[in-house]
Amino acid sequence: MLRHRDAALLSARAARGVNAADEGDRLPPSIGGLIGFGLRAWAANAPLFLALQLGVFAAYAIAEVVVPAATLSSPQGQFKQYVLVYTGLFADALVVAAAAFAVAARSAGAQTSARVLTGAAIDRWLPVIAVSFIAQSVVFLTSALSGLGPQSEPRALQYFTAPFVWLLWGILGLTGPFVALGADRRAFSVIVAFVHAFTTSLHRANLVRLAVLAIITVLPSVLLNVTYDALVAHHVARPIFWGQVPIDALTIGPLAALQTAFALDFARRAGGIEAPPA
User: Fold this and answer.
1) Using one digit for the tens of pLDDT, what is the confidence trace for 161-203?
2) C-alpha separations of 216 from 31, 42, 121 in Å
3) Residue 124 to residue 183: CA distance in whole angstroms
4) Over 70: is that where the pLDDT of 72 sits?
5) Using 50, 70 and 90 to split pLDDT, how confident is the model at 88?
C-alpha cells in the first residue's frame, strides 16, 4: 500500500504540473498537443490502465449477474440501468484518479511507477467517487435536454439546450481530476473541485477549448446510444450490458487522461488559479 507521504509528494508534483511554467511548460499549448499529451500519458501506463479497465468490466459483469436482464423501457430495465451506472461509477473513479496522477505527474516531469499511481489513486478514490456521484446525478437530470436518449417535448427545445448540456457535461468531467489532484483531504475538497472546474472552464480564455472538451466528453455517450439501439434492433441478448459496458470500460481511461490534460491547461490559462497546496 502506498504511504500517505508518498501520495502527498505526488500531489505536490501534480500541483506543479498545473503551473507548468516553472517546469519548462511541458504541457503543450495547442489543443491537438493536449489531446496527444493526454493519450501518451495513458499509453505510457497502458498495462496499469488496462488492468484497471478490466476491473471496471468485471464490476459491471457482477452487477449484470446479480440484477435480472430486462428491456430498457421496462421499470426493471430502468432500475438495472441505474445499478450498472452507479456500479461503474465506483470502479471508474479509481481509473479517473490514476489517470489524473499519471497525466499531472508527466506534465511536471515526474517519473512514476504503477505502484505509486495505484497507491495515489486509492488514496483519492473516495473524493473522486463523491464528485462522480454528484456529476452523474446532474447528467441524469439533464439527459432529457441533451439530444441523446429519449426525446422530450417539445423536441425543438433540444436543439437549443443540447449544446449547453454538453458544455455542462464537459465541465463536470473535470471535477474528478481536480479533486484527485487536490491535496486537501477534507470533505470541503469536493466543493473546491466543482468550483475549480466551473471557474477555470468558463474563463474567457478557455471557452473554445471547453467546446472541444465537451465534444470529447459526449462521444462515448453517443456511441452508447448508437450501440444500444443497434443491439435492440438485431434482438441481441442483454443489450443494456453489451451496449454500454464494453464502451465505458474501454474509454474511461483515455477519456480521464484527456480530461486531466484539459483541466491542467484550463488552470494554467485561467491564470492565478492553482491546485490546493500540498
Assistant:
1) 899 999 999 999 999 999 999 866 666 788 999 999 999 999 9
2) 12, 16, 23
3) 9
4) no
5) confident
The model's pTM: 0.84
Burial of 223 (0-12, 13-18, 19+ CB in 10 A): middle
Q: Which of 169, 172, 170, 144 lies closest to 158 in space, CA to CA?
A: 144
With b for 16 or more beta-carbon neighbours within 10 A and e for fewer, the 80-103 pattern comes to bbebbbebbbebbbbbbbbbbbbb
pLDDT at residue 15 is higher than 60:
no
Measured from the Cβ of residue 71, the count of other Cβ atoms closer than 10 Å reads 12
Confidence class for position 35, pLDDT limits 50, 70, 90: very high
